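Hello again,

I reread your note about wanting to compare the complex against the isolated chains. To keep things tidy I'm splitting this into two emails, and this first one only covers the full assembly. Below are the input lines as submitted, including protein chains and any nucleic acid or small-molecule components. They are followed by the predicted structure of everything together. The single-chain runs will come separately.
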Amino acid sequence: MIEEVLVDAMSDTDASAAASKRGPPILEVIGLHKRFNQLEVLRGIDLAVTPGEMVFLIGPSGSGKSTLLRCCNRLEEPTAGTIIVDGVDLTARGVNLNKARRTIGMVFQAFNLYPHKTALGNITLALRKVAGLTKAAANEKAMAALSDVGLSDKADSYPAALSGGQQQRVAIARALALEPKVMLFDEPTSALDPELVGDVLDVMRKVRQAGMTMLVVSHEMRFAAEAADRVIFMDGGVIVEEGPPETIFGAPREPRTRAFLSRVSH
Amino acid sequence: MEDETTPPMMTPLERFIDTFFNEAVIERYLPAILKGFVVTLELAILVVITGTLLGLILACVRSYRMLPVNLIIITFADIFRALPPLVLILLAYFGLPNVGVSLSAFVVIWLVLALTLAAFAEEIFWAGILSIDKGQWQAARSTGLSYTSALIYVVLPQAVRLTVPPLTNRAIAITMSTALGMVIGLADILGAATTAQSFSGNASPLMMAAIAYVIMFLPLVIAARWLETRFRWKRA
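Full-complex prediction:
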């Protein structure tokens, strides 16, 4: 299936870019199933993301895209299947999940900043307690991350004093500071007022340009069309269709994809 | 309180002052009441520190959701919240010596009240831990923090803030129960005062006790109010 996609991609204008990113996947999902009691949310997902690739997961609510994303760092426990990130099988017995999670950054819809810590404190916590940096080194790294998202002047602000867009940028900086191999974005702009979305998307664009591998669940179709290397349409717990954005948005093969896109484009 | 030494020509006001603010009695028993004050203060501090700490530890242990351990914690918390502390005090003080465990009145009051406070504190801390948004755990764990680190650095600091108002009120209420020590002969404020009252046949020592309790607890009540405002912060 992956090969198919890449062949599709190469037949397109983005062919050279996609081809240059070919190589061993940094994130691989094999035969993933997730069941909540009787409800089967994921019904056999296979997905491989190559380093530097930006992949968008789109689909109607309840299609399982967020669950798939959360399985990628095992915030959600898969019922069956394998997840390999940077060569580490996250589903293996006795895997050091905390260590593996350092290589997987995650950004949440609700930002989930720690309200009792400043922007800087939000970023330094894991740098100190997980990466084991000294206070000075952690502060330096956190300041660099804040500067990357354009919020150097907000280092000492508490989340309550920041706008939603600023909070989300701090959250991105918090994940980036750990220098992950993969970044997972779970509807990063869905909780934002429309005028604040742009700033967050700008930061995501920057992260992508820096070569980060990104898996994004989002309803920002225009952003996906412009920035994604690949778009995956999910429905009913399976991948219905995937391909470069031009194909998915321009000439979707599957009726379900067409139906979904016609609903969200209004 | 009939007092045969009272001269018959006293006005009602004089009689009131003689009964509740008798200078001679106050002077005579002030040292005993002061000693009692120290005993009550020591007990109060011990009970609050050990009871709160134990409650916090139990709530943290409970958050690991190990079924057998949690059953024990929940049973402990429910029983100690359902029992009047006085019953436990009498059981411990008069019952335990029969099985070879003789505890002083001070230790009995300390243990019973600390355990009672721990039972309530555990429930309060547990409610606080549960009230923290799942997203906080997820964010912390997604950066590689262990469960314990997420609990200590992310969840507890927020949960503890939420528990300050109910916890201080509960702690004050339970600490006041040190006055129950009177029934097992503890020379705390009330114990010293009732002893003095029966020796002097005058209510002034009880009034001194009342004033002593106000002196001790009013600052605590005010501090609790201050803590409530201090530990509140705007939610994002």
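For quick reference: DSSP finds nine helices and no strands in chain B.

B.
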